Task: inverse folding
């Protein structure tokens, strides 16, 4: 639609040459989000204007022979590389220069008309993108953050269960490998949030959805620390494991508190209906709400127990936002 409108408007305002630049600009500028469309419009326009100016200057000085066209293309590529231009501008710079030298050398006003064409195409594409508002990407971001929170809670739960009974070496390795999968999930959640934020930038509906995205961003930031704690606790358990560890009374009590922390973490995730209300009425108390009685552990266990207790304290701080 944007391409057709750009073609018709450019042909109406600039009769004569076919408005190829306007159609191409409109085709490339329309993007999944308005923010991306603005970026493409700027990149495209700068590339065309720069290429046209370079070609116009070289054409005045040296003419438009074939070797001049080739030299200009090489010059534009080197200039784009030296200036570290974004892909849209870097590609358009030599293309515009080549077309102006090859086609417009014998046509008066060709270079200026091509700039106007590009601006028309980019402007029409932006207007169409605003009128036909692209969908916001909130649902994928919310789901990614919720999955990450669920997996962090499951990691804490798995560690709590492992602390209660003897573990085989392969089970310890599986526990750590599973915990390390939190990192790619965290990266996926951060990418989804970035895409959601871009979809709201310059979007007329952003005021309606911004609060939900802000809640997901806040939760994702808190989960980053919990991911580190979950992996660290699991690694410490694997590295310092002892078959008699589960016999320690403190470890059994710690296991219960770890399970409560996993339960309380899921209370931070907004409901499936999109509500951002978080309540804990009628549920188990938060982890470590009452002091644990730490009995003197076996000399081979006190380092691991102390490490786990400190990590659990920090997990609780993230959950209750202290």
Result:
């Amino acid at each position: 639609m944007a391409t057709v409108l750009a073609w018709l408007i450019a042909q109406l305002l600039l009769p004569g040459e076919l408005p190829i630049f306007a159609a191409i600009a409109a085709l490339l500028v329309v993007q999944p989000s308005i923010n991306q469309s603005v970026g493409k419009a700027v990149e495209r326009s700068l590339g065309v204007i720069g290429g046209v100016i370079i070609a116009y200057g070289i054409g005045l000085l040296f003419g438009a022979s074939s070797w001049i066209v080739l030299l200009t293309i090489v010059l534009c590529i080197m200039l784009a590389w030296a200036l570290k231009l974004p892909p849209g501008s870097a590609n358009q710079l030599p293309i515009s220069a080549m077309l102006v030298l090859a086609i417009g050398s014998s046509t008066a006003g060709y270079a200026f008309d091509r700039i106007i064409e590009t601006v028309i195409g980019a402007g029409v594409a932006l207007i169409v993108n605003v009128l036909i508002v692209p969908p916001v990407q909130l649902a994928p971001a919310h789901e990614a953050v919720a999955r990450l929170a669920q997996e962090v809670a499951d990691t804490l739960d798995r560690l709590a269960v492992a602390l209660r009974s003897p573990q085989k070496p392969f089970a310890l390795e599986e526990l750590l490998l599973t915990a390390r999968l939190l990192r790619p999930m965290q990266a996926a959640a951060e990418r989804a949030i970035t895409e959601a934020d871009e979809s709201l930038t310059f979007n007329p509906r952003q005021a309606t959805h911004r609060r939900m995205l802000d809640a997901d961003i806040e939760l994702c930031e808190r989960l980053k620390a919990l991911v580190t704690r979950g992996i660290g606790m699991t690694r410490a358990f694997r590295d310092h494991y002892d078959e008699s560890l589960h016999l320690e009374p403190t470890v059994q009590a710690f296991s219960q508190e770890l399970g409560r922390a996993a339960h309380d973490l899921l209370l931070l995730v907004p409901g499936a209906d999109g509500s951002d209300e978080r309540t804990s009425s009628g549920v188990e108390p938060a982890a470590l709400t009452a002091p644990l009685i730490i009995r003197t552990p076996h000399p081979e266990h006190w380092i691991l127990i102390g490490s786990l207790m400190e990590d659990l304290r920090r997990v609780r701080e993230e959950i209750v936002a202290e």
